[in-house]
């Protein structure tokens, strides 16, 4: 089975080049710290950089700056580098699997639901097929697993999960037909391996290859070919660095002319933006973005399930070139804090949707974000609250059933300025002084709460959470 070798093949600038590692573990037997040099002549990598608004020349002009950016999880280069590390040697049956935080620890740290720890390989096995999987450079407090998936819509689960022998070989037999996936978990309790990649070799197998389209390793032209393939699973697989995706072959075939690089870039970009909205700036352990995956399922719609990053985003009969409110909304659910106000599940996640719209489309009119959205004197600047206060409008926040109107109160606060993000970020963030809180609350609390007729209990939630959020 063709796995688009031309996208995975690398042309090295020397006989044995090195990709930089985000961990002290030796990931590659290479000789340079500038990880991008390995991909200088790779068309897919350069197409991805162009889609991200960068170029190889830009990376090379200031190597130290590029290395610094590549180590920052709030920078897209971090995720692009990680993608190249994970799958850059897959044509040699070598994978570098990130160590993902345990679900309970991640939820306690961030307030989010969990992410998916499993990464696709380029293999599909039938029942009875065997794999010999060998791990190396695996720390004592990291455990790795193999598993299979053969359900491709709804709440997909990874079956027959088998722990791999650390720094040794493991025999895995397919109990059913399905895709082979790999995962590693950080068991340190403090996520000390958040940037660790574990090498897993497919030493031998009787399974077949299965296509996987990877942002940075496959070209636009390769998408045109891959999208028309009938695969062993009947599914087409994609990966953008933060999400893996599954879409049935018929929908993929209808998407031959989709600019799939733009779609994947938009998906990656707004997921990173959601981290920023929630204050996950990488400044401390508590503020680290999650390293696990979202799992975008284009075969069903419209839902978001907590626990393994599963999201139903099948909004049409083909893949979109441009993402839209539905994608932003469902992904937003994966980024809601557990402290969210009762009864506002379908409101507070749209704070993310507004942010995604602004990021991808600019400060556009409300209807450009969603046809049912109206701004109620909202503006994309720090005058949002003032404009509303001067409008004389009043609303019944507690009894109003219109989720878009309720959203406007949060939007007004969010765009008022840095301190307005107090109500949006997680309570575990770094504290600020009561003086700052009072300075923020004093000019707006009385009139704003009055105009929105906000109940005292919800007003108190704003205040309590504001005591614990960095600005």
UniProtKB/TrEMBL annotation:
Keywords: Signal. It comes from the Bacteria. InterPro entries: Pep_M60_3, Peptidase_M60_dom. SMART domains: M60-like. Pfam families: Peptidase_M60. Residues 116-418 form the Peptidase M60 domain. Coiled coil: none annotated. Residues 1-29 form the signal peptide. This is Peptidase M60 domain-containing protein.
């Amino acid at each position: 089975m063709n796995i688009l070798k031309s996208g995975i093949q690398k042309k090295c600038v020397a006989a044995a080049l090195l990709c930089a590692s985000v961990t002290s573990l030796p990931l590659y037997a290479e000789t340079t710290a500038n990880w991008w040099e390995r991909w200088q002549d790779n068309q897919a990598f350069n197409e991805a950089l162009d889609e991200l608004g960068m170029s190889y020349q830009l990376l090379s002009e200031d190597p130290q700056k590029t290395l610094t950016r590549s180590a920052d999880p709030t920078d897209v280069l971090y995720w692009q580098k990680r993608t190249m590390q994970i799958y850059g040697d897959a044509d040699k049956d070598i994978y570098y699997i990130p160590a993902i935080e345990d679900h309970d620890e991640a939820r306690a740290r961030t307030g989010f639901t969990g992410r998916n720890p499993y990464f696709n390989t380029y293999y599909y096995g039938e029942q009875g097929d065997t794999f010999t999987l060998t791990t190396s450079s695996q720390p004592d407090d990291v455990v790795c697993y193999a598993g299979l998936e053969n359900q491709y819509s709804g709440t997909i689960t990874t079956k027959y999960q088998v722990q791999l022998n650390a720094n040794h070989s493991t025999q895995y037999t397919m109990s059913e037909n399905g895709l082979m996936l790999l995962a590693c978990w950080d068991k340190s309790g403090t996520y000390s391996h958040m940037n660790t990649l574990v090498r897993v070799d497919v030493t031998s197998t009787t399974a077949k290859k299965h296509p996987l389209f990877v942002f940075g390793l496959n070209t636009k032209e390769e998408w045109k070919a891959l999208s028309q393939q009938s695969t062993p699973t009947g599914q087409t697989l994609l990966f953008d660095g933060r999400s893996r995706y599954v879409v049935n072959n018929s929908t993929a075939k209808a998407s031959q002319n989709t600019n799939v690089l733009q779609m994947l870039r938009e998906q990656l970009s707004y997921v990173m933006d959601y981290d920023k909205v929630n204050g996950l700036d990488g400044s401390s352990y508590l503020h680290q973005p999650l390293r696990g995956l979202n799992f975008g399922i284009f075969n069903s719609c419209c839902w978001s399930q907590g626990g393994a990053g599963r999201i139903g985003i099948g909004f049409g009969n083909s893949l979109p070139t441009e993402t839209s409110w539905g994608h932003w909304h469902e992904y937003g659910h994966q980024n809601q804090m557990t402290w969210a106000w009762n009864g506002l599940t379908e409101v507070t996640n749209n704070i993310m949707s507004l942010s995604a719209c602004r990021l991808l489309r600019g400060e556009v009119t409300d209807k450009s974000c969603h046809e049912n959205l109206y701004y109620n004197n909202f503006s994309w600047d720090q005058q949002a609250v003032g404009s509303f206060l001067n409008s004389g409008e009043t609303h019944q926040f507690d009894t109003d059933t219109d989720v878009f109107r309720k959203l406007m109160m949060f939007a007004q606060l969010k765009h008022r300025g840095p301190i307005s993000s107090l109500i949006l970020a997680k309570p575990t963030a770094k504290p600020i002084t009561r003086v700052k809180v009072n300075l923020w609350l004093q000019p707006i609390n009385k009139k704003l709460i009055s105009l929105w007729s906000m109940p005292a209990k919800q007003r108190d939630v704003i205040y309590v959470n504001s005591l614990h959020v960095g600005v």
